[in-house]
Fold this protein.
Amino acid sequence: MGKTATILLAALIALSGATASAGEGSGSFSGVNGHQATGQVAVVRTADGWEVRLEDSFSFDGAPDPWVGFGRSGSFVPATDFHRLRSNTGAQVYKVPADIDAGAYDEVYIWCRRYSVPLGVARITD
């Protein structure tokens, strides 16, 4: 293997390590269907798996049966609503179950299970 190929291989290995955290990022909530939702959210990979972290700035106007879940490209993905929203305001941390790959989604939803409608959504970016 030539010197150029060795350097290229090393660069690819380094870059593959940099992309190991795909899916991590943060975003800002917007209300949907007449609801108010604001504040920051982060999706973080920890040694124990994925977490969704609603920041101190999080605020939601309330609704029956709100759950935290994921979506992709403007659509909620059924079966990703994994935890009931604990509080309508403030910092909260939710551990994502191991069978949900948070890195596969680009949105965090506040989802109403009772009526199957979105209440708030945050697009996750790096």
User: Anything to note?
Assistant: The mean pLDDT is 87. The chain has one domain: 23-123. Residues 23-123 form one domain. The two ends are 35 Å apart (CA to CA).
